Amino acid sequence: MKKRLIAILAFFCATTFSFAQEQTSETSVKVLPMFGGKQKTETEQKQDEKFLTSCDKNFSTRVEASKFFMERGWEYLNEGQTDTAMYRFNLAWLLNPGNKDTYWAFGLVTSAKGQSEEAISLYEKALELDPKNSLLLSDVAAAYLAVYKENKKKKYLKKAAGYVNTATAADAGNAYALYNTSLVKFYEKKYGEAWDYLHRSRAINMTQIDYGYIMELVAQMPDPQGFFKQMAPDVNTDTAQN
């Protein structure tokens, strides 16, 4: 076990050094989902083979190795190191292209960079492998809502509504799905229903709630339950409506 950990750490040192060197270029393919989807050079292919061979020696299966690099990726993402996280997710994908979590992670990182339309296609790749995952469906819905907020095209709102309906059908206790349903109802100008879903969401988990959204909702309709009543005097109605 000790020998295996040393080998893995040695690999990390080598790949991190190489990664740091490549960041001097405009954009390294290592920080693009699936390495940018481009044909690799002979040198890059040899590097991949070396990496895969090293993992074959240090893990019982490539599925196990993929899971290991996914975990490292989540750690970096939680620390806000999105590029390093993306590189780890790419390694996990290289090891196991059938790992739906890699596509999900690609979507999350891409969304975090404000590229919601690009994120949607990545989320939907994950959904092809896991179509009933309520949390994944919620993330796809959130991406569609972000795109709708930018361009106001109803087809995106309709897509978001479809995904949150499927998400809540799969898990009625998914607070994030309920929150996104509230957003859908808000954009549909159904403010009473928006409040209902918001309260259902916050009763389960308040951490995902955006208080800027609550202020917009209060500007359109006071909270029927009075829970957010104290926020009303601070609302700038003109700003909220815009």
UniProtKB/TrEMBL annotation:
Q: Where is the signal peptide?
A: 1-20
Q: Which UniProt keywords apply?
A: Repeat, Signal, TPR repeat
**Superkingdom of source:** Bacteria
Does this entry carry the keyword Zinc? no
Question: Which Gene3D superfamilies does the entry mention?
Answer: Tetratricopeptide repeat domain
- Which parts are the TPR repeats? 100-133
Its recorded name reads Uncharacterized protein
